[in-house]
Amino acid sequence: MHAFFEIWHCIWALLGCSFNLMLIYMAIYKSPKTIRSYATLIINFAVTDFFECALDLFIQIRLMPAPGDVTVIYILNGSCKYISQFACKIGLSLFLPCITHSVWSLLLSFGYRYYILHYSALTRLKLVKIVLLILIPSLFQGLTFWTSFAPLEIILPLAKKWFPQYNFEAETGVLTGIVDITHWAATYAVFNICLPIFPIYIAIFILRQKIITFLGAKTQSMSPDTKAAHSQLLKALTIQAFIPIFMGIGVIFYLIAQSGLIVSPIVENAIFSIAILMPALSPLTYFYFVRPYRQFLKRIFKNPFKVSAAYVQRTGSSSAMFQSGGHPSQIGTQATTVL
């Protein structure tokens, strides 16, 4: 079973790193002027998700919260175990804030899409400042969380106490943990990760519904091609709205383990095995729904040895971002910039 989860982490983390590197490249070099501003948020997404996937591969977390207690045990099975325990602790401390920042970034993405329907696009500098602002809580967590980890000689007896059915001497990963989750750094990390998930998820669906309502009210004055383009936009919004559900499921598994309802290696491994799907799959929505990116990928698969060739934009208008029925859809700059 442990081998299954290790292979799972390796596959999805490597795929996620590859997808996000490709998305970073396309956001920088293949974004048309109409989405140049929004591309800043795409880059923020891709960089965050890349580090999340890379760190997941590096540490591969098995989380074991002591049922009904304030002790949390971690077994880190990634390549960090071949370096040092401290390297694993730092990797874990940096990994968790990536998850939180990614979720906040998704909310920012939807918020900006709603904003752009009513106001002109923000400059890239303003968007960078906003991204840095929402990064502060996660960055603080990353710089402080490692201080709450207990050394092996303290955490091992507690692990045996709470999980006597497990043979910890046979574990090949790095064993670490938090003796008291009420330690200020640990408490801050738990609240920063768990509390925002469901309110953010609700806010995303509210914003999605507002965007759908706004676009629906404008369909009477739209051409068939424009309506088709907006239909593509709504599909993208729907799929992206469901991305945080992976993190939500991970939080539910954590609460189940913490409450003691189910004590099982499957639940303990599943918490972050499910969460890794969020950064790994997120780039696919941009690959498919952002027309210039989709065209570029088609060129890669069609002519893999000509990737370095100049990219030819075939749209008749700079605002044609989605494609429907093989014809470019003429949609306004504000509508197209949102995605």
Automatic annotation (TrEMBL):
Its main location: membrane. It comes from the Eukaryota. It is a multi-pass membrane protein. InterPro entries: 7TM_GPCR_serpentine_rcpt_Srd, Nematode_rcpt-like_delta. GO terms for cellular component: membrane. Keywords: Membrane, Receptor, Transmembrane, Transmembrane helix. The keyword Transmembrane applies. Residues 319-339 are annotated as: Disordered. The keyword rRNA-binding does not apply. SUPFAM superfamilies: Family A G protein-coupled receptor-like (SSF81321). The chain crosses the membrane at residues 6-29, 94-115, 127-149, 185-207, 237-257, 269-289. It is found in: Membrane. Belongs to the nematode receptor-like protein srd family. This is Serpentine Receptor, class D (Delta).
